[in-house]
Design goal:
With 179 residues, the protein is of the alpha+beta class. The chain contains 5 helices and 4 strands, in the order H-H-H-H-E-E-E-E-H.
Length: 179
């Protein structure tokens, strides 16, 4: 289980770094969403695949003994390693992983608490099925579930407000808040 978690996390980290380096500023949101969801799925499935080293096809007679000798040396190293040292190493990795998950869950809970506070303190109005929450604080408009959060209707002209509401409604229909 530990190796699965480490491999999945490593795949997600590499894909996220690639996303931040090359795709973050792209305006093709549907491609970005496909990339992020695809790499999430890749991170879940790829660690389940077990690569077998014995399926190597040797093309020359020279390389075979070298590979076999390396395998013998590796098995000797693994057999002579103290199991208590390995367990301590694995326990530290599990604790580190649990600490990372705990911090991530704490940050998520903090963001949800901020969202709930903005909802409770904001002035609410309806626009069809959408609730418009005026927070009174300076921030960019955003949507979550069937709610659209804006700083104040007074900050925008009627045309700007319609455009913002339409834009945020499109995010809501596409369920981008899940991403």
């Amino acid at each position: 289980m530990l190796y699965y978690l480490l491999n999945a996390t490593a795949i997600w980290l590499i894909c996220l770094i690639a996303f931040d380096a090359f795709l973050r500023r792209e305006s093709y949101h549907s491609y970005n969403r496909f990339y992020l969801l695809g790499t999430f799925t890749l991170g879940l499935l790829m660690p389940l695949y077990e690569w077998r080293g014995d399926s190597i096809v040797y093309t020359t007679g020279i390389s075979r003994p070298v590979v076999e000798r390396a395998a013998t040396v590796k098995s000797n190293i693994v057999s002579t390693t103290d199991s208590s040292t390995t367990m301590d190493w694995q326990q530290w990795l599990i604790l580190l992983y649990i600490a990372g998950v705990t911090v991530s869950l704490f940050l998520l809970a903090k963001e949800i608490a901020i969202l709930v506070r903005m909802y409770r303190r904001g002035d609410k109005s309806k626009d069809g099925v959408w609730s418009i929450i005026e927070t009174g604080k300076a921030h960019s408009p955003f949507s979550a579930f069937r709610m659209i959060f804006i700083s104040s209707k007074k900050d925008y002209s009627e045309d700007q407000l319609k455009m913002i509401l339409h834009h945020e409604e499109q995010h809501g229909h596409a369920m981008h808040f899940i991403d």
